[in-house]
Design a protein that fits this description.
The protein is α/β, with parallel strands linked by helices. 43% of the residues lie in helices and 17% in strands. The structure holds pyridoxal-5'-phosphate. Pyridoxal-5'-phosphate binds next to helix 12 and helix 16.
Length: 416
C-alpha cells in the first residue's frame, strides 16, 4: 500500500524551534515522536474534554487569578532564590537554589496539585482520584482537595504504603481515602494503573489528578504549564539578584515535573545549559537504578509513547533509587523529546553521591534537601568541577524531612 507524500510535517520531524514557538505538543499531543494519548476508547472523550477545558481555563483571567491567589496565599509563592555562598565557594562557582522545599507540604508537587484541583472544581467533578508512590503527591493532592472541598481517593501500592506509613497518616488526616493496591508490583506503577481504571469506570464525574509530567496528553503539557511557575520565577529572580542568566540550570528527573517546570521557561535562552539528573542508584544493571533516559528504550507506558525501562519483550524493569520520588521506570515525553534534539543533557547520580550531597548541603547551607533534590546537587557539583567560575541554578524540588528514616538507615550524617 503506498500513501501519497504528506505535505505536513510528520511528528518525528518536529524541531526544537517548533517547541519554542509553541507548536508542540501538536494536536495529537506529540512532542516529535513522543507523547500522544494511548488510552482506552472509553477515556478518549474525557482526555479530549480535559484538554479543551484546561486551555479555556488557562486563558480565563478569573481562573488564572484564582490560581495565583492560591499560589501566594496558600502555597507560599513566590519561593525564594537563595544564594548558596559557602557551597559555591567550595565548588569554585556561584550557586543559586530555587527553594521549592519552602512551599506548603514541602515540595514542588503542590503547584500542580492545587492547579489541577481548581480545574476539577471548574469541570464540576464530584470526586478526585490520584496515584502516589512515596506519598508526596498523595499528600499534595489530599491537601489541595481538602482546601477546595472535593472528596479525594488516593491509590498507593501496598509495598509503598508500608514503607511510607507517615504519609498514609497525613493523607488520612487531610481527609483523603487511601486505597492500597495489591496488584502488580504493588508500587507506583500499579497505583497509576488502578487510578486509570477508576477513572475509566466514571470519566464524567471523576477527575484524575496526575502527579508528574507523564501520562496521556494533555497531562504532560498541563503539568508543565502548572510547574513552569518555578522557572518563570527563577528567571526573573536570577536576573534581579545576579544580573544575568545562569550558565546552567539543573534539576532531578523522576517523571520529570520539577525539571520541566524549571527548564521550560529557559529553553529559548540558548546560553543556559540544561541538565537533568536521573537516579543512578547502585549500579548500571537492571533493577539497580531508575535512570530512564540513560538506559531506556522507546515504548508506551501509562498512556504515552516515551522512553522507559523495559526488557526485550517489553516487560517493565524493576527500578531502584534511594529516593522514592525518582523510583519510576518511565519519564515524561517532553524530556524524551528534549533529549532527542539535544537541548537538555541527562546524566545520572548514584545513591552514594546523593547521600553525600545531602550532608554537604546541610553542613554548608543549613538546608536539608530531599534525596531527590540531592541528585540535582550532585549533578551540579560534577558540572561545577568542569566549569569553574560559572553560575549554576539548582532546582531544590523539596525538603528532606520526609527522608530522615532513609538517611538514618544509610548512616553517615557526620560533618563534611
Ligand atoms: C516527587 C518528587 C520528585 C520527582 O518527581 P518529578 O515529577 O520528576 O519532579 C522530585 N523531588 C521531590 C522533592 C519529589 O517529591
Amino acid at each position: 500500500m503506498s500513501a501519497a507524500p504528506s505535505p505536513r510535517l510528520t511528528a518525528s520531524e518536529a524541531t526544537l524551534e517548533d517547541l519554542i514557538a509553541g507548536r508542540l505538543p501538536d494536536e495529537q499531543g506529540r512532542y516529535g515522536a513522543f507523547g500522544g494519548r494511548f488510552v482506552p476508547e472509553t477515556l478518549m472523550p474525557a482526555v479530549v474534554r480535559l484538554e479543551e477545558e484546561a486551555r479555556r481555563a488557562l486563558n480565563d483571567a478569573s481562573f488564572v487569578q484564582e490560581l495565583d491567589l492560591e499560589l501566594s496565599e496558600w502555597v507560599g509563592r513566590p519561593t525564594p532564590l537563595t544564594p548558596a555562598r559557602r557551597l559555591g565557594r567550595s565548588w569554585g562557582v556561584t550557586v543559586y537554589l530555587k527553594r521549592e522545599d519552602l512551599t506548603h507540604t514541602g515540595a514542588h508537587k503542590i503547584n500542580n496539585a492545587i492547579g489541577q484541583a481548581l480545574l476539577a472544581k471548574r469541570l464540576g467533578a464530584s470526586r478526585v482520584v490520584a496515584e502516589t508512590g512515596a506519598g508526596q503527591h498523595g499528600v499534595a493532592a489530599a491537601a489541595a482537595c481538602a482546601r477546595l472541598g472535593i472528596p479525594c481517593t488516593v491509590y498507593m501500592g501496598a509495598v509503598d504504603a508500608k514503607r511510607q506509613a507517615p504519609n498514609v497518616d497525613r493523607m488520612h488526616r487531610l481527609g483523603a481515602e487511601v486505597k492500597e493496591v495489591t496488584a502488580g508490583d504493588q508500587t507506583l506503577r500499579a497505583a497509576i494503573d488502578e487510578a486509570l481504571r477508576d477513572w475509566v469506570s466514571d470519566p464524567e464525574s471523576t477527575y484524575y489528578l496526575l502527579g508528574s509530567a507523564v501520562g496521556p496528553h494533555p497531562y504532560p503539557w498541563l503539568v508543565c504549564v502548572l510547574q513552569s511557575v518555578i522557572g518563570t520565577e527563577a528567571r526573573v529572580q536570577i536576573l534581579q539578584q545576579h544580573g544575568r542568566l545562569p550558565d546552567l540550570a539543573v534539576a532531578c528527573v523522576g517523571g520529570g515535573s520539577n525539571a520541566i517546570g524549571l527548564f521550560h521557561p529557559l529553553i529559548r535562552d540558548e546560553q543556559v545549559a540544561l541538565l537533568g539528573v536521573e537516579a543512578g542508584g547502585m549500579g548500571h544493571r537492571i533493577g539497580e537504578h531508575a535512570a530512564t533516559i540513560h538506559y531506556g528504550t522507546p515504548g508506551v507506558l501509562h498512556g504515552a509513547y516515551s522512553v522507559l525501562l523495559q526488557d526485550q519483550d517489553g516487560q517493565i524493569q524493576e527500578t531502584h533509587s534511594v529516593s522514592a520520588g525518582l523510583d519510576y521506570p518511565g519519564v515524561g515525553p517532553e524530556h524524551a523529546f528534549l533529549d532527542s534534539v539535544g537541548r537538555v543533557t541527562y546524566e545520572t547520580a548514584s545513591d552514594e553521591e546523593a547521600l553525600a550531597a545531602v550532608d554537604e548541603c546541610c553542613a554548608l547551607e543549613g538546608i536539608l534537601p530531599a534525596l531527590e533534590s540531592a541528585h540535582a546537587m550532585a549533578g551540579a557539583k560534577r558540572w561545577a568541577a568542569r566549569h569553574p567560575g560559572s553560575c549554576i541554578l539548582v532546582g531544590m524540588s523539596g525538603r528532606g524531612d520526609k527522608d530522615l528514616a532513609t538517611l538514618m538507615a544509610a548512616g553517615g550524617g557526620e560533618a563534611t
